[in-house]
Amino acid sequence: MKDLDLSALIEARDGQKPETEPTLRANVDQLNFWYGDFQALKNINLPIHDKKVTALIGASGCGKSTLLRCFNRMHDLYHNNRYEGAITLYPEGDNIVGAKTDPMLIRLRVGMVFQKPNPFPKSIYENVAAGLRIRGINKRTILDDKVEAALTGAALWDEVKDRLNEGAYSLSGGQQQRLCIARALAPEPELLLLDEPTSALDPIATAKVEDLIEKLADNITILIVTHNMQQAARISDHVGYMHLGEMVEFDLASRIFVKPSKEQTRAYVTGRFG
Amino acid sequence: MSDQAALIGGAADGQGAGGSVLVDPSFLWRRKLKDRIARVVLFLSASLSVFVTAAIVYILITESMSFFEVVSIWDFLTDTQWTPLFTDAHYGILPLLSATLMVSGIALLVAVPAGTVLAVYLSEYAPAKLREAIKPILELLGGVPTVVYGYFALLFVTPLLQKFMPGLNGFNMLAPGLVMGIMILPYVVSVSEDAMRAVPDTLREGAYALGFSRFHTALRVVIPGAFSGITAAYILGMSRAVGETMVVAIAAGQNPNLTLNPSEGAATMTAYIVQVSLGDLPHGSIGYQTIFAVGLTLFVITLLFNIIGFWLRRRYREVY
To answer: What's the pTM?
Structure first.
C-alpha cells in the first residue's frame, strides 16, 4: 500500500469543523478485559469527547471491537467474560462496566450498529419502532413521528417512506445497514457505537453511511471501529490506535494521521504494518 | 511480496520438471468406474423408496375406487353414521374424522404451548449443559413404544381423570388426547428449538443492544425469526397425531361416535382400520374396501397438512 494522502483529507475536513472546548461523554480508565483466561484488553485509557467521532483503528485481533463492545456490555451475553477498571458515562458518572450496573439500563442509553446489517424479521417501520416500544412508547402518533425522524436521520426516509410495512429483508444491504442505524438512533442514545459499519457494504453504500456519520456527529457522540484508514481520516475527530490489546496512541485525527508521536502508529497508518 | 512470488515461481518450475503425477490411465479409468457404480447404486436406492411410496398410493387409490363405485363420495363425506358392518350400512366418514380431529386437537393443545415454551427455554435460557442433558431425555420420550402410551392413557390417565370428572367414560377422547400431546411433545420441542437456535446470534445481539430483555428478545425477535420452523414443528406434530394409532385404538374405544364431547369414547380413523384389519373380512368385500377409503382420507389429510406447512414455510421464510 502506498502512503495515503490522509493529511489532505484531514485538512479538507478540519476547515469545516473548528475545535471547541472539549467536554467528555465517556472516559475509559484502566480497563482490563478477559475472555476466560485470555486478557484481550490491557490497561486501556481513552476519553470519548462529546459530539465528536472517535475512531478505533488497529490490525485484526488488536481488541478494538472488544473495547467497543465493553461500552454496552455486549460481553455479558457470553460466559466467562470479565471486566476490571471503569468506563464512566457522563454526565451522570455511572461506571458502565461496574459489577452493580445493570447492563440492560446501559443499553437503553448506548446504541450500537453492527458489522453486518442485522435487521429484525419485521417490517421496516417495526424495526425502527422496536427500540421505542421496548421503552414503553406505543402511541401511534409518537411512534410515527419518531420513526420518520430516525429514518430521515439515517438518510433512508425518502427511499422507504412508501414501503414502511414491507419486510426489512426486502431492502438492499446498504439500506439495511442504514435501517439499523435508524433503529439505533430512534431511542436517541447518548452514545452511538459503530462496529465496522461499512465493512459489508459496497463503495457507494459506504460513502452514504460515512456522510451520515459525519452529519450525526453534530448531535451525537460516536465511537467507531474501522479497518479502513481513509474512513477514519475522513470522518473521525479523534483516533485511538490499538495493538495486541493495548492503546498505543490516542490523539486528534489530524495528529495521528499526519504526525503520530509513536513509530508503531506511523508504520500502521502509512500501511507499512498490519 | 517478492518472497511470495518466488515461492509460486518455484512451485511452477518444480511441476514443469516432474510432469503430471496422474499418468496411469487404468487408475483414472477405475476411478471413473467407481464413480459410476456409486451413482447407479445411490440412484437405485433413491428410486426404491419413491417406487414403494408410489405403489402404496396406487393401491390406496385403486381399492378406494371400487369402494366409491358402491358408495358415493357425497354420502361418504356427509353421512353422519359409520356402520359399514351392520345390515343397515352407512358409510359416513364424519364420526371417524371428528374423533381423529378431536383427539389430535387435544394433543396439540398440550404439545403446542408446552412445546413452544420448552423450546424457548432450551434455546434462549437454559445453560448449555442443562440443554445437553434435557434433549436426550426428551428424545427418549419419543422412543417409548406407542402401545405403552396407549395403556398409560387407558389404565392410568383415565382413572386419574375420573376422580375429577365422574362423567368420564372408560373409553374417552380426553385421556388419549392428553397422552398423545406428551407423545408428540419431543417432536415439537426438537424441531422448534432447532429453528430458534438457527436464528443467528447477530439478531439477538441487535435486540440486546437496543435494551431488550431476554424475554423480549425471545418473544419479539427469536420467535418471529424462527416462525417458519416453529410452524413446521406444529405441522409435524399434527401429522403424527392424526396418524397415531395405538394410543387411540386402546384408550378411545372402537365405537364410531359423532360427538364434540371429549369425555365420550369414539373410534378414530386409525382405530377403525386396526379393528377391521384384525377381523376376518373377505378380500374384495365392501367392508374390506372401507379401510382403503379411510386410509386414503387419512393420507389426503396428512398430505394437506404437509402442503400447508410447506407453503407457510416458504411464505414466512426469513433470509437473515
So the answer is: 0.79
